[in-house]
Design brief:
202 residues; 0% strand
């Protein structure tokens, strides 16, 4: 009898392990399918699949990344409020994706016209994650948000920081859309301040 109980215990453990492997494989396949959709530019389908994944696989190691991808799909679909709700609701559990959550949050805030919040979020990203691969883009986006608020001296201050990402790109003669946007913002800031004595003394 004791031997039979041990045998049943072993079988139960083996079956439980197989079940867990099947569930993990199912979650992995679901995540990959949703990822293929977002890479293909099918943001509507990707948003739905990532949403289903987040609901179904709450213990998946891909959960934080799936939320981020769902938020990105919503941004691509012009749904900044929905994207921001996702990101803010899961930020505490973002882990290694925290910097990405902040970056996308700043994008969502700018997209919905909340430039004050966007400026603060991009600033927090730059302060807390100085090695982020989005550092240059975050700096330009922060300056862009500030320009929407009409704070032109602040635009000059942000993009004129000698240790900032934009000035570093300028020193290395790096050319691209972001540096071009940075120069355009600086030019607009110079013109506004040159033509507005009150702003110059602010």
């Amino acid at each position: 009898m004791a031997a039979l109980r041990r045998w049943l215990l072993v079988v139960t453990v083996l079956l439980w392990g197989v079940g867990r492997l099947d569930a993990a494989s199912e979650a992995e396949n679901a995540f990959r399918a949703a990822t293929r959709d977002i890479q293909a530019g099918d943001y509507q389908r990707a948003e739905g699949k990532f949403g289903q994944f987040v609901q179904a696989y709450t213990n998946s190691p891909h959960l934080a990344e799936a939320v981020l991808c769902q938020a990105e799909a919503r941004l691509r679909l012009g749904q900044p409020e929905g994207a921001l709700a996702l990101l803010q609701g899961h930020l505490a559990k973002a882990g290694k994706w925290s910097a990405e959550y902040l970056f996308r949050s700043g994008q969502a805030q700018a997209q919905k016209g909340d430039y004050q919040a966007a400026e603060q979020t991009f600033g927090r990203l730059l302060q807390d994650y100085p090695k982020s691969p989005h550092r240059l883009e975050a700096e330009v986006e922060q300056a862009s948000a500030v320009s929407e608020l009409g704070q032109w001296p602040r635009v000059s201050e942000l993009l004129g920081q000698s240790e900032g990402a934009f000035q570093s790109a300028v020193r290395t003669n790096a050319m691209g859309e972001l540096t071009e946007r940075g120069w355009l913002l600086l030019g607009r800031a110079w013109l506004h301040q040159r033509n507005s004595p009150g702003e110059l003394s602010a």
